[in-house]
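Homework-ish question, so no full write-ups if that breaks the rules, but can someone show me the predicted structure for this set?
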Amino acid sequence: MKIEFKHQQSAHCENGVISNLMRHHGFNISEPLAFGIGSGLFFCYVPFVKVNHAPAVTYRALPGVIFKRFAKRVGIKIKREKFKDPKLAKARLDENLNNNNPVGLQVGVYNLVYFPDDYRFHFNAHNLVVYGKEDSNYLISDPVMETVTTLTDKELEKVRFAKGAFAPKGQIYYPIDFPEKLKIESAIVKGIKHTCKDMLAPMPLIGVKGIRYTAKLIKKWPKTKGVKLANHYLGQIVRMQEEIGTGGGGFRYIYGAFLQEASSILKNPRLEVLSKEITEIGDLWRDFALEASRIYKNRSAQVDAYVKVATQLEHIADREEEFFKKLKKAI
Amino acid sequence: MKKEEVPQDKSNLQSTSQKELCYAVGEDGKYVTELSSGWDPKTIALNNAIEEIQSRISIAKERVLNKQTSPIEFYMECHKMDVSILASYVGLWQWRVKRHFKPKVFKMLSNSMLQRYADVFEISLEELKDITLYKTPDLKNNTPDEN
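A: Not a homework solution, just the prediction itself:
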């Protein structure tokens, strides 16, 4: 059985699932709008979670949170279930498909066979939509892929019950109740306020302060960790920024697109100006990634080179602080 | 980033001929989406991570052959895991997994315990006991030359 579902590629998985599921139910929500309303933009240095033997840096809210906030703010209800027993998890999925209801799933990336091998790491915060079943193959709309794909029973069970940090536990979610009209305007305001609060939070590892803290660590790494580890850690920051979930630059661009859309919905021209500003900041993140990649490509860890990229990061933190203060006032 | 600046570099994505979606600014200043085939800094970062894993695998292999650790550690590295991930897959405390790295302890493990590891690594018991039977997966390296 196959549900009429329109797959649309997106830059990031969770926004994409929200956007595609909402479209399926007749509400035209773009990916940037889902991201902005759900306050997806974030920064946190997480020293106690190791990904591939290096500290994690996240550029977005925790898995599931974007959809949760989005739903609450626009006034829809979502149902979310986790399972211990894979059989139950499968039964509930099949039940939904039989009821013509495409569902979002949180899955681990490591066993996603349709990803290129090199991209398969133990990372459990990926999201996709299942929109049907043909024989024992599930029809998959993975928002970061250009086209739809399939997974067998077994393959799907494996990714739904991946283990480790953020284990998905067979998580399944879908919207169940819609108001007549979505509260888009107020949702945008709430979404923006929340992001400003997060990014300007007076806590050391979070937001603008977290970016500054990371810059400080980068300066120290060649001395305290040695060349090899320092390069590995720096590479990890860039990977988490640009690869795993299009964090740094990519997210700034999505946010820019969101502010542009918000500007016309709220008829607030200041947001259009700020959209340009965050686009410039996105470019700075990409310059940082470029410079950082040069360092570990050459396998040297000259202290000056590390200081240079750290300074770039500090500059980004300054620009973002200014930006989010202005954004707070503009709304 | 302007639409025409969306990078079209070679990347590991090519093996599946997929492209990524990016948001960029069009000529009229409006945001549009554009596909990207990859970006060198990303590719370099990814290859860096893969090389790190390759070197971990070969170090673990040597240590197993020198009887400094058990095959479990080798297979853990082959599957890009660390102790905490492996422990959650086999359903054991981390300290027990670490203990199973000791060749002496490994030798005394029951077949049912070994089977739990073999299932996670999707190999046979024979392969679990003798790493020379296992074919290490090929991890390619596509580091771009320019730049």
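Now go work out the reasoning yourself. Hint: The beta strands of chain B are 20-25, 31-36.
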